[in-house]
Design goal:
It contains 15 helices and 4 strands. The chain has about 325 residues and is mainly alpha-helical. The chain folds into 2 domains: about 150 residues, no CATH class; about 130 residues, no CATH class.
Length: about 325
């Protein structure tokens, strides 16, 4: 588990080291897990697996620093020694959010589901519309390297960190839930379904809907960047967003100005935090307003700044680049 200068590796183990861990400790961990499942909660299971992993990989350097998380300090003590460890301190080389999620999950504050499989992007999206996330504990093969990206322990850590991104700020959680519901509706549009046949574009939209968990404004900016060709050619227009998402004219205007010099500060509140109820019967002059907006939007595209990027981007700024 070597450290790098400005953060931590995406995966603690290489494929070769993951297989070596399986050969050395896999049978022991599987036996322990079978015993733990008889009485441990999902959060406790994850805590026990992570501590087992760090104790085996770094027997003398697995304990991290004591943390000062006030939300955890106000919790009652846990009967599980592993959860009680996380209530007080971190594992070495892990961000504090891992301990936070495990404890608040156990306390019922964070609504998480423990999976033994990797969910599809649509399954994650559906959970997020309900205000939930899932955590994958891939215990069928401790030496696996799922999706060719990271070992199973790093995969678990990755899910826990994303859970904290989703739940930590209640207002942003509500906004992410709103965005998830809008994306669930947008994915049904024929143009979006056609674009998903392109493997590269589909991987980008799946990253957006299932793996970003970032600020809602950035989610909307990324969405607009992905849809730029369709917006420029008119394949997607105001009426599509109004019919498919129930957007008001004000919401469409705010979206149209994103990534342009016309963008106005915190207009994403109109898109996410103040959902307007869509009425099928347009007010007098509504159709002409929509048409004029589409024409003005086409003109504003010339100024569009493709600021959203997902190639190699990490949603976690600072030292924890997982």
């Amino acid at each position: 588990m070597a450290l790098r200068q400005q953060g931590y590796k995406k995966s603690f183990l290489s494929p070769e080291l993951a297989r070596a861990f399986q050969n050395r400790f896999g049978q022991e961990l599987t036996h322990c897990l079978r015993s733990w499942k008889k009485s441990a909660s999902p959060a406790d299971l994850c805590a026990k697996v992570l501590i087992f992993f760090f104790q085996k990989e770094r027997p003398k350097l697995w304990k991290g620093s004591f943390h000062q998380d006030q939300d955890l300090q106000t919790l009652s003590s846990f009967s599980s020694p592993e959860l009680e460890f996380f209530r007080e301190r971190n594992l070495r080389a892990l961000p504090p959010s891992v301990a936070r999620v495990l404890c608040l999950w156990e306390a019922g504050v964070y609504h998480l589901e423990l999976w033994s499989t990797i969910p599809t992007a649509e399954q994650v999206l559906d959970l997020q519309t309900q205000g939930r996330r899932c955590v994958s504990l891939l215990d069928h093969d401790w030496g696996a390297f799922p999706l060719g990206e990271r070992d199973v322990f790093s995969f678990l850590i990755h899910d826990l960190i994303h859970a904290d991104h989703f739940f930590k700020d209640p207002r942003l959680r509500e906004a992410q839930m709103s965005f998830a519901q809008q994306m669930k509706n947008l994915l049904l549009h024929p143009v979006i379904q056609e674009k998903r046949q392109n493997v590269k574009w589909n991987s980008q939209i799946e990253y957006l809907i299932a793996d970003m968990n970032t600020h809602p404004l950035h989610l909307m900016k990324t969405l607009k960047s992905l849809l730029m060709p369709e917006l420029e050619t008119g394949r997607l227009q105001a009426k599509d967003f109004q019919n498919q998402l129930g957007w008001s004219l004000t919401q469409w205007q705010a979206f149209a100005r994103l990534n342009t010099p016309l963008e106005k500060g915190l207009e994403f509140r109109e898109l996410l935090l103040q959902q307007a109820q869509f009425r099928s019967s347009k007010s007098p002059g509504g159709e002409s307003k929509t048409l004029a907006l589409d024409q003005n939007f086409s003109l504003s595209l010339a100024y569009s700044r493709h600021s959203a990027s997902f190639e190699g981007e990490s949603e976690t700024k600072g030292p924890y680049l997982l």
